[in-house]
Amino acid sequence: MDVSHIALGEVFSAALARELESCGAVLVVIGSQWTASFRVPRDSVDYVREEVRQALALADVAVVPVLVEGASMPRAADLPEDLRPLAERQAVTLRDDRWGDDVAHLARSLRSTLGLRRVPRWVLAIAVAALGLAVGTWKALSPAPEPVPFDRAAAYEVATAAARHAVHDCAGEPPVLGECPVLLRFVSRGTVSDVYFDTGDCPFKNTLFGNCLLAKLRSTRLDPFDDFDTAELSVLVRLDDEGRVLAAPGE
Asked: Which of 22, 166, 214, 242 gets the highest tally of CB atoms within 10 A of its CB?
């Protein structure tokens, strides 16, 4: 989200074209709502779509789809006609529970593709933070999708990924070994109205780790749905003594 490097009065399209032509690679960050956003009516130019379209037309620029939030690579049929060549590009996945390793792999691959020398670790750390900020900014600026019928399978994909991410984020608290079912209740706009350990006997209950886990899961978001007032998902979270994490549907 460039708010400082485009000069006052400069034509957006010309600035974007100039910057794209100077790039060696363009990373197209694709989240779980990426394709849905193209179906939302817009009152202004979709500059992300325009950047991707222009990048795909540049023979000397590597266009790399970067999949986040558990997203799958879109099919050509799911993309606007001018972006369908993107479906033919080799993608890379950044997993919530292996974010640092996956970004490091992406950086190594880009250095090899572009013939760059290794960059200092502090530069990579800034790049990782910037990519996370870019994903967050895209989420904040993307128009909300229209409500659709509740998709339980897709909802479980989101919920289990969120649980794995939450365990990773809560690693600073003393971990508690064992397993607990977590119940998440969603309202129709896709936000969590309640989340709790759905059992009387749970080692995570009333611990710093367990409280952190529930707090993180409160930010889980689904697509808005229009066929129920609320929807409940049960996710089994397990942490063993070797540090392995399991998050799976509890139904």
From this structure: 166
Query: Does a structural domain hold residue 201?
Result: yes
Radius of gyration of the chain (CA): 20
Cβ–Cβ under 8 Å, residues 173 and 164: no
Is 156 a domain residue? yes
Supply the range of the domain harboring residue 92.
12-141
Residue corresponding to tokens 């390793």 = 101
* CA terminus-to-terminus distance, the chain: 41
Mean pLDDT of all residues in 10-28: 82
Q: Is residue 86 part of a domain?
A: yes
Task: Clarify whether residues 137 and 156 are in a common domain.
Answer: no
Tell me: the pLDDT tens digits for 24-54?
889 999 988 888 887 777 777 788 888 899 9
**Residue 130 pLDDT > 60:** no
Q: Distance (Å, rounded) from C-alpha 96 to C-alpha 235? A: 17
Q: Which amino acid, residue 172?
A: G
* Domain total of the chain: 2
Mean pLDDT of 208-217: 90
For residue 147, is it within any domain? no
